[in-house]
């Protein structure tokens, strides 16, 4: 009995070390700690901003405009943001973008707490945050390759995903309490302060221990060069195609879940909340499972695309609430495993001097599809119900996975010769 217990403990310790191995790297550990605090503040701001717009206007259209303004700059300028990330020092770029985000959050907090805020001010600050995101997102994701060695890319990205999804569970809850007990402006103020943690982590890093990538010299046509690089590499092309299809039609959970809760299962906001929490639980489990991986391949991404497609169909067919909840947990696992593998695969397979541009293309496809995919999904659900919206998420994803099979076979053929 004692031997079995010792074996179990030894295996548990080994699994723990494997899942959290990137935290043994001091620079990544400092970044991770600061990011964990900051992402909670980010989710607080998202909830508080939506609530503020509704308080000011009582208009879903205004809320949609606010969301679109945050993603529009990535859609318009995302690729050029990647060019700048390849040219600039990534650590200093993140320090600048995080400081700018803190200033924007503090300005919104001051306007709200001073009771002088107007809708156009919220729009202007939201657009400013969107412009900052054009640089911030590709810089943060590419910076992972400077903090850890290649064998830990998957692990570090998965740990980042774990923090992001944990923040999605914690941040909105704190924001709700602050809005109810203090003021909506308090949530913006706390978010502004949360950036101190990530800035402190970046300042405390040892630059000599970073795996720096040579800066890209200025030249014409560098954005087009990034596009050509992706198109000429079958694995990168397949990856971005799958991301485009899944992001456009498969990840509109905020559109489908409220309708699934109300119209399919006859519930209200509480069931919608359960669905969202179930997705979050699955995401955390999936991120931790991904953290145990050593490598990311296009074939593993393909199988997770099939899994994502299949689970959506299962949720659509679930006859009872309990079964739907269990399937949504599985959907959270498949969704986060797909997203983590896609980001990591792009980093591993892209030329180091192209990482900023390739990841910017991912951001453009992943975030830029939101203003297009959500209305399409909403229209389908309005015509044929929420279950059809889930089928719209699953079936095209499965077809897209089948479509990229020839590309991946072509990429594998030279290695087998």
TrEMBL record:
CDD domains tied to this protein: MFS_MefA_like (cd06173)
Organism: Nonomuraea aridisoli
Recorded coiled-coil stretches: none
The protein, known as: MFS transporter
Domain Major facilitator superfamily (MFS) profile: 22-412
Alphabetical list of PROSITE patterns matching this protein: MFS
Alphabetical keyword list: Cell membrane, Membrane, Transmembrane, Transmembrane helix, Transport
InterPro entries for this protein: MFS_dom, MFS_trans_sf, TM_effector
Listed transmembrane segments: 61-85, 97-121, 169-202, 238-259, 271-289, 301-318, 324-346, 358-377, 389-408
Pfam families linked to this entry: MFS_3
Membrane topology annotation: Multi-pass membrane protein
């Amino acid at each position: 009995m004692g031997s079995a217990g010792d074996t179990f403990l030894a295996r548990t310790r080994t699994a723990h070390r494997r899942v959290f191995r990137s935290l043994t790297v001091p620079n990544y550990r400092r970044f991770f700690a600061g990011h964990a605090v900051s992402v909670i503040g980010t989710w607080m701001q998202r909830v508080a901003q939506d609530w503020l717009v509704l308080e000011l206007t009582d208009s879903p259209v205004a809320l949609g405009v606010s969301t679109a303004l945050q993603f529009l700059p990535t859609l318009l300028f995302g690729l050029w943001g990647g060019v700048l990330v390849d040219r600039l020092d990534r650590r200093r770029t993140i320090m600048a973008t995080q400081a700018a985000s803190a200033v924007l959050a503090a300005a919104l907090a001051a306007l709200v707490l001073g009771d002088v805020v107007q809708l156009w001010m919220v729009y202007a600050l939201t657009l400013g945050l969107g412009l900052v995101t054009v640089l911030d997102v590709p810089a943060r994701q590419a910076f992972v390759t400077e903090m850890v060695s290649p064998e830990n890319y998957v692990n570090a990205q998965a740990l980042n995903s774990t923090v992001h999804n944990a923040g999605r569970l914690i941040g909105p809850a704190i924001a709700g309490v602050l809005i109810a007990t203090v003021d909506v402006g308090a949530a913006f103020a706390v978010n502004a302060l949360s950036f101190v943690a990530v800035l402190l982590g970046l300042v405390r890093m040892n630059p000599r221990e970073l795996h720096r990538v040579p800066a890209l010299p200025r030249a014409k046509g560098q954005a087009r060069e990034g596009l050509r690089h992706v198109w000429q590499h079958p694995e990168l092309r397949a990856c971005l195609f799958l991301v485009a299809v899944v992001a456009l039609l498969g990840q509109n959970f905020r559109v489908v879940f409220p309708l699934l809760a109300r119209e399919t299962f006859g519930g209200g906001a509480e069931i919608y909340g359960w669905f969202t929490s179930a997705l979050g639980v699955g995401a955390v489990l999936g991120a931790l499972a991904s953290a145990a991986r050593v490598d990311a391949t296009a074939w593993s991404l393909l199988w997770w695309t099939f899994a994502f497609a299949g689970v959506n169909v299962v949720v659509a067919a679930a006859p009872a609430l309990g079964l739907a909840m269990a399937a949504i947990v599985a959907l959270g696992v498949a969704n986060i495993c797909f997203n983590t593998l896609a980001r990591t695969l792009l980093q591993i397979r892209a030329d180091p001097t192209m990482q900023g541009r390739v990841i910017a293309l991912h951001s453009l496809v992943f975030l830029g599809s939101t203003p297009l995919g959500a209305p399409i999904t909403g229209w389908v659900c309005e015509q044929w119900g929420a279950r059809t919206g889930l089928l719209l998420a699953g079936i095209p994803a499965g077809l897209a996975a089948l479509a990229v099979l020839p590309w991946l076979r072509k990429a594998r053929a030279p290695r087998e010769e």
